[in-house]
Design a protein that fits this description.
The chain is 44% helix and 17% strand. It has helices at 13-42, 50-60, 75-97, 213-216, 218-229, 236-270, 281-284, 290-296, 298-312, 357-397, 421-425; strands spanning 2-10, 118-123, 127-128, 134-137, 141-146, 157-162, 168-175, 189-194, 198-202, 207-209, 273-277, 315-319, 345-347, 354-356.
Length: 426
Amino acid sequence: MRLRYNYRLYPDPSQRQALARLFGCVRVVWNDALAMRKAARKAGQPWIGGGDLQKICVTAAKRTPERGWLVEVSPVPLQQSLRDLDVAYRNFFDSVSGKRKGPRMGLPVFKSRRDRRQSARFNRNAFRLPGDGTLYLAKIGRIEVRWSRELPAVPSSVTVIQDAAGRLFASFVIEVEDAGQALAEAEAEVGIDLGLTHYAVLSDGTKIANPRWLRRRARRLARLQRNLSRKEKGSKNREKARIAVARQHVKVGDARRDFLHQTSTSIIRENQTVAIEDLAVSGLARGRLAKSVNDASWGAFRTLLGGKAARYGRMLIAVGRWFPSSQLCPCCGWRNGTVPLGVREWDCPSCGEHHDRDVAAALNILAEGLRLRAQAVEAALVREEQDKDVVAAGLADTENDCGGRVRPGEAIPTLAPPATYDAYAA
């Protein structure tokens, strides 16, 4: 299992300038290589391999007056940029051919200097951890790091990332053994109904409030945006105003991410089985409630639940989006039909029970999730029995022939191996 560990970097002014130079060089090498491949394809020339790109865009480019400043930075991030370009092309081809599942991947695009998010990756030859609380990067030096937790293993690479607010982070992706990660088995099982009035309603009646991170800072963001629009383009005051806006958005993202991590961890630790509705988030994010849906970030919440369930030995079950969870009575199964969103409580005419709309939906999601789990277990047992029958039949068919020929026919001649390798070439 791969886990990502991010740590805040605090470089001094000279190191920050060196990192800015590095980001620019990485961007230029990426754009040069991408332009060469596009030009070759347009001219009908063969594909340019990654090794040839390194010789042309890095090694040979350093000797030219136009790209002579590439020698000022470490060559390792430049080479890693070309490898990332190969990965981007591979993902595109796999997506077109159907080997890669999920949304369709597009072709790589040119990187802009106006993009405020920059990154550069160092492999093991270009960085090290001295052990004094700093991170050493080639041709940059030792950078102060805020180590919030220890690394579980020795990293093989590090990616230096700069966000829109100008903050710098060191990102380590480390392979962690699955053994020892599983938690003690819990007895509780829970269904989750996601919404906007409450962020999540659990089948045990717990209601998690929706923090509405973006809405709470809407007035402050509007004021900062007005201040930004009044500044002259290209001026230093405009850059200061842009950073002020970016910092507010960063605070929104940090608060949202912290909430999602804490909530998902709490649910996974306390429950052995978690059932959640498979919402069409991408479709809902284009409707009239798009701003609120994007602010809720349901997709990221489900992704965190899935990752932590796999890490800690829990089970996450996704119930189909067409399952009428809010229309069924969890007691008798009577279907109430389409219920307007304004109706938050209703009485079942069949059994007379009074239901909270969201709690009833969570109970129905849990029941459907348990049904899907039992169905999957039964299907797995059937497949196991079929595999046993196939193996047994195969062993019975080949038990008496011992690898020899059992049907009459012409003898298959055997060829003696040649004495030397030259005989194969002949």
